[in-house]
Specification:
Number of strands: 21
Number of helices: 15
Shape: globular
Bound molecules: nicotinamide-adenine-dinucleotide
Strand order of the largest sheet: 15-16-17-14-13-18-19
CATH superfamily of the largest domain: Aldehyde Dehydrogenase, Chain A, domain 1
CATH topology of the largest domain: Aldehyde Dehydrogenase, Chain A, domain 1
CATH class of the largest domain: Alpha Beta
Oligomer: single chain
Distance between the termini: 75 Å
Number of domains: 2
Structural class: alpha/beta
Strand content: 15-25%
Length: about 500
């Protein structure tokens, strides 16, 4: 194991010495079988930040075999639930001990403003603590059938879990899957996104230090086509948890079909914020800004479409735009920064193209690279008003700091517009009318809806989307429906009628 750096120091701007990010397979940190590596870039400068092992089929097969052996023959699935819970609690403690290093890596790797990263690093530890608390509750149900039968269910781990993760919040999103997968007794192969490899191998070090046995947790770095695809189709993998783009999710489900893998796919979003004329404007404006411009706008649940009832439209849109102009864009390691750089130059370019495509919209804020930030993938907080529902900026996920706005007349139009995209991940409703709040929340095609609130999530609640935003629910004990098999055992308590065949005349 490589030694973990000292902790609790102030989070310093990285000296950028991260070394090679190796795979972690069967308890060993390894280079790729091919010896190949790839570069990861610093989004604030686009200079090379580190190299990672470039995994291929051979590395994936080795990781799946290690996970398979740990599942079929190792202690992990056979431990008492309380014993697994104790290990998960230790993982949470070790993450907390090394919180500063996790923050340093993630901020350097993805450009997340450091002020926002603190909460996400804490969430990583909470994910393990939370599932350590839930695992003793992993029990079945019993059904009495008169005096004849006792039927009961047991929950069993599924097997080897392949986790294929995106780059926008790698630590938080991967720990949110690793924790329930391990809690249920599965073993794991994690494939982090190629644009954000810096916390995965470090997390492996932490899990090892906390006592997770060799082979139970494995990491293979690499690209989607060469490392993700072999994992998604590998016959030794029983389930795939994927978070990423909708089209990739479709490919991954197809890859798992021949071996009937169960899959949970959390995909893109274009979530509406619906503001009725009776809403309280002040908290609403705060929430609108936070919901689109935190996490650099690279957030699956971003409230990216602002729909405001006509009488309040100019006021809300105007206030949001004025505040957006004052959002501090800059170095993600500066604690005052509110909006950091986008992940990669090509993504920056793609977001700019979306802005340029919105012909006919009113550009109220942003729309360009901020002055004085000539290198790195910086973009101003951008507000486009008076868009229409046919525009790409209304229909498609931009995944950047771009808010589009349009007015609506009445409740029916608000619901129609909210549902007028292929996505259905999150929705936000602002109104003072209790009955309308419930009515609209129920009428929107969405997996999750917040009323008079920004996106605040209790770990017990289900998370997931409808339509092109995904299939399945994770979060809370809903995750166990995915990470566990349910077996029913039927016990005859005495005699019961059995059809008697073959007795002749
Ligand atoms: P992406 O789909 O490009 O990549 C995600 C992961 O899939 C990466 O690890 C990538 O290497 C891998 N991959 C790519 N092609 C593959 C293939 N053919 N087979 C197997 N694996 C493959 O997504 P991204 O750009 O990393 O992430 C951004 C997207 O993720 C956005 O659409 C965002 O909305 C979505 N997202 C959704 C949620 C959610 O919970 N709904 C959360 C975060 C991000």
């Amino acid at each position: 194991m490589t030694s973990l750096p000292m902790t609790r120091a102030a989070v310093a701007k990285p000296a950028m010495e991260f070394g090679l990010q190796r795979h972690y397979i069967g308890g060993q940190f390894r280079s790729s079988a091919s010896g190949a590596t790839f570069e990861t870039l610093n989004p604030a400068t686009n200079a090379v930040l580190a190299h990672a092992a470039d995994g291929g089929e051979e590395d994936v097969t080795a990781a799946v075999q290690a996970a398979r052996t740990a599942f079929d023959d190792g202690p992990w699935p056979r431990l008492k639930a309380s014993e697994r819970a104790a290990v998960l609690r230790r993982v949470a403690a070790v993450i907390r001990d090394h919180e500063d290093e996790f923050i340093r890596r993630e901020v350097a790797d993805i450009g997340m403003p450091i002020a926002q990263m603190k909460g996400l690093a804490m969430r990583a530890a909470e994910n393990f603590d939370y599932y350590a608390g839930v695992v003793p509750e992993l029990h079945g149900r019993a059904f009495q059938v008169g005096d004849e039968f006792l039927n009961y269910t047991i929950r069993k781990p599924v097997g080897v879990a392949g986790l294929i993760m995106p780059w926008n919040a790698p630590l938080m999103l991967s720990t949110w899957r690793i924790a329930p997968a391990l809690a249920a007794g599965n073993t794991v192969v994690l494939k982090p996104a190629e644009w954000s490899p810096l916390t995965a191998t470090y997390l492996a070090e932490v899990l090892e230090e906390a006592g997770v046995p060799a082979g139970v947790f494995n990491v293979v770095h690499g690209f989607g086509e060469t490392a993700g695809a072999p994992l998604a189709r590998h016959p030794g993998v029983d389930l795939i948890c994927f978070t990423g783009e909708t089209t990739t999710g479709q490919t991954i489900i197809a890859a798992g079909a021949p071996t009937l893998k169960r899959s949970s796919v959390e995909l893109g979003g274009k979530s509406p914020v619906i503001v009725f004329e009776d809403a309280d404007p002040e908290p609403c404006v705060d929430a609108v800004l936070a919901q689109i411009f935190t996490m650099n706008g690279q957030r699956c649940t971003a409230g990216s479409r602002l729909l405001v009832q006509e009488p309040l439209y100019e006021r809300i849109v105007g206030e949001v735009a004025e505040r957006a102009k004052r959002i501090r864009v800059g170095d993600p390691f500066d604690p005052r920064t509110e909006l950091g750089p986008l992940i990669r130059p090509e993504h920056h370019e793609r977001v700019l193209q979306y802005i340029a495509s919105a012909e006919g919209a009113r550009l109220l804020a942003g729309g360009a690279r901020p002055q004085g930030l000539d290198t790195g993938n910086y973009l101003e907080a951008t507000v486009l008003a008076d868009v229409n529902e046919d525009m790409a900026v209304f229909q498609e996920e931009i995944f950047g700091p771009v808010l589009v706005a349009m007015p609506f007349r009445d409740e029916a139009e608000a619901v129609r517009l909210a549902n007028a995209t292929p996505y259905g991940l999150a929705a936000y409703v602002w109104t003072d009318d209790l009955q309308r709040a419930h009515r609209v929340a129920h009428a929107i095609d969405t997996g999750m809806c917040w009323v008079n609130s920004q996106n605040v999530r209790d770990l017990r609640t289900p998370f997931g989307g409808v339509k092109d935003s995904g299939i399945g629910r994770e979060g809370g004990d809903y995750a166990f429906d995915f990470y566990c098999e349910t077996e029913i055992v039927h016990i005859a308590l005495g005699t019961h009628a059995i059809p008697r065949l073959g007795l002749g005349d």
